[in-house]
Amino acid sequence: MKQYKQFRSLIIADFEAAEWPHPPHKHNHYELIYTRQGTGTHYINGNAIPYVNGNIFLIGPDEEHYFEIDSPTQFVFIKFTDVYIHHASSGSSYGLRHLEYLIKSKETHLSAFQLNNADQHSADAIIQVILSLKQDTLSNEQLIWLQVLTLAALLQRNMPELKATLHRSRDMQALFCYLHKHIYTPYKLRSLVMASHFNTTPDYIGPYFKRNTGITLRNYIGNYRKSLIRQRMESGNYSLKQIAAEFGLTDESHVSKIMS
User: Fold this and answer.
1) Beta-bridge partner residues of 95
2) What's the predicted TM-score (pTM) here?
3) What's residue 160's pLDDT?
4) Please, what is the angle between helix 117-133 and helix 137-157, to 10°?
5) Where is the signal peptide (predicted)?
6) Helix H or strand E segment including 87
7) Could you tell me if 130 and 148 are in contact, meaning their C-beta atoms sit under 8 angstroms apart?
8) Which residues lie across from 253 on neighbouring strands?
């Protein structure tokens, strides 16, 4: 299996192709892929997903993918690394939340985003702004990144709702997505609130999570929150006060206690 390696933090590429030029491959970075025009099929981890004009895909590291093109397709690729996510001066921790959630939710990697008409128009405009800045990516890197974060916010609100049903109330993927989405809102991570969302009881949801993951729900939430806080601290772009406010913590001492 071919694996592409990217060492630059952010790369923008746009091109038209009648035949897909790459073999099935993986890579060490993330890709937001926009099909400006054309039709075909995108294969992600063996899943065949038809695409049309205006579809957007998110691919993570080590995910195998390739395209089969039916009609000539204009592609826009926004390729970025973990280093950029956690060390760039993004200027928007709110936008970063949306991107982190999309990245953590594997459901988003196995389908094309279905945007409503208004958001599709906005996404088209954002992509056009990014393309207008690509000729000097180095100088415009922060401006491009802000557009990426705005696009992430649009994508998140167009995800299928993770509503509890009798079938999905016990679905681990939905549970992980819920945890990642609400990691910044401690109230929504209480067992009583989560149990209500997933149509079950507080006494059931914790043991169910432990049985399927080998780790307690409390420890998973703590470890995930800790990893996000560590990334904020290592970037040097956030004060302890800002981190506390972002994660709904009492004060800076609470942040220090979590990290100790």
Assistant:
1) none
2) 0.67
3) 52
4) 170
5) none
6) helix 82-87
7) yes
8) none
Buried b (16+ CB within 10 A) or exposed e, 200-238: eeeeebbebbeeeeeeebeebbeeebeebbebbbebebb
Strand ranges inside the chain, DSSP E: 2-4, 10-17, 25-27, 30-44, 47-51, 55-59, 65-80
What are the φ and ψ backbone dihedral angles of 31, each rounded to 5 degrees?
A: -135, 125
Q: Distance between CA atoms of 23 and 258, rounded to whole angstroms?
A: 45
Amino acid found at 127 = I
199: alpha, beta or left? (left if phi > 0; alpha if psi -120 to 50): left
Q: Give the model confidence (pLDDT) of 151-201 as tens digits.
A: 988 887 776 544 444 444 346 767 887 888 788 889 999 999 999 988 889
Residue 180 has a pLDDT of 81
Beta bridge partners of 251: none
Euclidean distance between CA atoms 83 and 235, whole angstroms: 9
Q: Are 65 and 24 in contact (CB under 8 A)?
A: yes
199 touches 165 (CB < 8 A): yes
Q: Which two tokens stand for residue 74?
A: 């204009």
The size of the chain, in residues, is 260
Cα Rg, the chain, nearest whole Å: 19
Confirm if 239 and 251 have CB atoms less than 8 A apart: no
